[in-house]
């Protein structure tokens, strides 16, 4: 266990120095800050629709940026370490595979989630300074959704990069998964429904499987349950499940999938050649 | 017996890279391992270190299975890879990793490096991969020598060293404890002739020659 935290600590330190982390922090953290500063605190000025539009843009940006950022940087670093023989050297010291794998996972998670979380805190502090009443429940639930979304994609990244030996193939695989998930958020789903006259139940089922769609429905429902932009499938799900169950589902489903994927990745790490 | 490899075979994508290899390494053995490029030397070493799941045969190090009990096996082995890896950690962090995981005191590494005319303190917060090729190699050697092991494995350790560095390196090797076994993979036997007492020749995944000298 002591080596697990050591590996995590060193991974965080390494990430803090890397360029991707800065780009990520600036893009994502900056957006988050912008959203809280102008969105939440000025909602009185901008009016309700103004705020909703702001939030919607922010959610769409999260949906696109967060997954691909996590996938690319994680896959690159994990498979890259193997291809460049860094892994060979680091694992020639008496560190158990368990400590190494889960340490890396913990470290990665911290680096991915930290900027988002800090930006959130920044927003909260800003809101408090401005004296407005903060929507605490919303802030908390939204961070929980972000947590789940980060976790599921981190799990996927670890799974792909331990299963597939080559960085290029693992990266390609990540792109395909990401594009497919993006394409199958509500708009894509309706198209499918219209063209193929598919069973409604199947379409809803597909939507519920897709972590990006789950995040999207959860996040939008949190801010504005009546929003029409949400799309018919999402609306149907929201209507059927009720908002409480939807929120619970949107928090726990991605965590379960992420945990399963990272566990399968761990099995592959142990059962396959390390190099 | 330190290392016992019995009928070890390993395939990569259908081609046999290790073909029924038998080797035992005893206490005090100083081995020069040679063979053409692609003979399987690095693969054999990696199998001993538990990186590969071999297809058949058995390897034990101090009686332990390198894959299933990797921590116990690696506690007693020092290893220098064929090429210095582009580790992005700073020297400081690398020494922390090594110190915590293997109990090597930092001062010890600095001291060993100093004996090869490498002043690490000056570069301590640089990322490892930004050191010059020879400096990387020297630091890896210093780390390996600082670790109290039963077996030192060097996969062509001198490739990047200048002549003086090479000389210093061999000088340090003469000081290694008698009871510690060494395995050098090398293409230049003449350089380490005085340091070894056994030579193994590999070709096409087989040990073709194994003799005391
Ligand atoms: N991870 C791997 N996947 C597929 N093939 C591999 C892998 N590692 C080694 N090989 C192949 O196994 C053979 C033996 O490689 P190895 O690195 O053991 O040779 P070597 O004796 O160390 O050669 P050199 O003197 O050039 O270092 C080579 O043909 C190599 O292409
Ligand atoms: Mg080799």
* Morphology of chain B: globular
CATH architecture of the largest domain in chain B: 3-Layer(aba) Sandwich
List the strand order in the largest sheet of chain B: 5-6-7-3-8-9
> What ligands can be seen in this structure?
adenosine-5'-triphosphate, magnesium ion
Q: How would you describe the oligomerization state of the chains in this entry?
A: heterodimer
- The fold-level CATH name of the largest domain in chain B is Rossmann fold
Q: What do these coordinates show?
A:
- In chain A, 86% of the residues lie in helices and 0% in strands.
- By secondary structure, chain A is mostly helical.
- In chain A, helix 3 packs antiparallel against helix 10, helix 5 (97-130) packs antiparallel against helix 12 and helix 10 (211-223) runs antiparallel to helix 12 (243-271).
- Chain A is globular and about 55 Å long.
- Residues 44-48 of chain A have low confidence and may be disordered.
- By secondary structure, chain B is α/β, with parallel strands linked by helices.
- Chain B has 2 domains: 1-76 and 149-213, Rossmann fold (3-Layer(aba) Sandwich), CATH 3.40.50; 85-148, no CATH class.
- In chain B, the strands form 2 sheets. Chain B has a 6-stranded mixed β-sheet, sandwiched between helices.
- In chain B, helix 6 links the parallel strand 6 and strand 7 (181-185).
- In chain B, helix 4 packs across helix 5.
- The longest helix of chain B is centred in the middle third of the chain and has 14 residues, at 133-146.
- Chain B starts with a strand and ends with a strand.
- The relative contact order of chain B is 0.20.
- The mean pLDDT of chain B is 91.
- Classes of the chains: A mainly alpha (275), B alpha/beta (213).
- The complex binds adenosine-5'-triphosphate and magnesium ion (MG).
- The site of adenosine-5'-triphosphate has 11 residues of chain B, from helix 1.
- Chain A: This is Nitrous oxide reductase maturation transmembrane protein NosY.
- Chain A: Keywords: Membrane, Transmembrane, Transmembrane helix.
């Amino acid at each position: 266990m002591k080596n697990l935290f050591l590996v995590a600590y060193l991974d965080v330190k390494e990430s803090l120095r890397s360029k991707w982390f800065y780009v990520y922090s600036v893009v994502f953290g900056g957006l988050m800050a912008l959203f809280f500063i102008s969105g939440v605190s000025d909602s009185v000025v901008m009016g309700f629709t103004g705020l909703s539009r702001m939030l919607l843009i922010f959610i769409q940006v999260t949906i696109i940026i967060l997954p691909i950022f996590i996938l690319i940087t994680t896959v690159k670093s994990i498979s890259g370490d193997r291809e460049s023989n860094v892994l060979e050297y680091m694992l020639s010291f008496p560190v158990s595979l368990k400590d190494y794998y889960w340490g890396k996972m913990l470290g990665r998670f911290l680096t991915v989630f930290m900027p988002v979380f800090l930006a959130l805190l920044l927003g909260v502090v800003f809101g408090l300074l401005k004296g407005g009443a903060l929507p605490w429940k919303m802030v908390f639930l939204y961070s929980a959704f972000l947590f789940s979304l980060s976790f599921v994609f981190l799990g996927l990244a670890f799974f792909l990069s331990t299963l597939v030996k080559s960085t290029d193939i693992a990266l390609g695989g990540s792109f395909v998964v990401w594009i497919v998930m993006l394409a199958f958020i509500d708009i894509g789903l309706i198209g499918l429904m219209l063209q193929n006259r598919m069973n409604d139940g199947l379409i809803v089922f597909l939507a519920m499987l897709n972590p990006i769609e789950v995040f999207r429905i959860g996040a939008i429902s949190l801010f504005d349950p009546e929003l029409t932009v949400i799309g018919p499938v999402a609306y149907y799900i929201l209507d059927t499940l009720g908002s409480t169950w939807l929120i619970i589902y949107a928090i726990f489903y991605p965590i379960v999938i992420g945990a399963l994927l990272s566990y399968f990745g761990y099995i592959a790490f142990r059962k396959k050649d390390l190099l | 017996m330190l290392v016992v490899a019995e009928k070890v075979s390993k395939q990569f994508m259908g081609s046999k890279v290790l073909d029924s290899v038998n080797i035992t390494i005893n206490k005090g053995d100083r081995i020069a391992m040679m063979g053409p490029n692609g003979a399987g030397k690095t693969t054999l070493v990696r199998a001993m270190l538990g990186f590969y799941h071999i297809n058949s045969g058995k390897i034990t190090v101090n009686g332990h299975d390198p894959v299933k009990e990797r921590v116990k096996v690696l506690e007693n082995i020092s290893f220098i890879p064929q090429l210095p890896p582009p580790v992005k950690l700073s020297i400081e962090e690398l020494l922390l990793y090594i110190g915590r995981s293997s109990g090597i005191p930092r001062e010890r590494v600095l001291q060993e490096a100093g004996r090869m005319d490498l002043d690490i303190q000056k570069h301590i917060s640089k990322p490892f991969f930004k050191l010059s090729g020879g400096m990387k190699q020297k630091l890896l050697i210093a780390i390996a020598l600082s670790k109290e092991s039963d077996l030192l494995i060097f996969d062509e350790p001198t490739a990047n060293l200048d002549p003086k560095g090479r000389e210093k390196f061999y000088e340090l090797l003469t000081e290694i404890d008698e009871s510690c076994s060494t395995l050098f993979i090398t293409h230049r036997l003449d350089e380490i002739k005085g340091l070894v007492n056994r030579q193994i020749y590999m070709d096409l995944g087989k040990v073709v020659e194994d003799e005391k000298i």
